[in-house]
Amino acid sequence: MKVILLKIKADAGRKCVNKDLAGGLGTATWVGDSFRARIFERVKKSNVVLPELSIAYLAAIFKKFGWKVKVVEEMENFSEKADLVLAPSSIVDCRRELTVVSDLKEKGYHVGVYGTFATSVPEFFLDKADFVIKGEPEAGALKIASENFLPNGIMGVFSIQDLDSLPFPDWGLFPINKYSYSPALNKKPVVAMLTSRGCPYSCAFYCPYSINSGRKWRARRVENVIGEMEYLKKNYGVKAIDFRDPIFTLNRERIIKLAQEIVKKKIGIIWSCETRIDCLDEELLSQMKQAGLRHINVGIESFNEEVLKRSKRLPVKIIHQEKIISFCHKNGITVAAFYIIGLEGDTQASVNQTIEYAKKLNTLVAQFTIGTPYPGTEFFAKIKQEGRLVKKDWQEFDTYNPVYQHENLSRENLLALKEKAFVSYYFRPSYLLKHMPKFIIEKILWQS
Question: Which of 43, 131, 323, 326 is the most buried (most CB within 10 A)?
Answer without folding.
Answer: 131
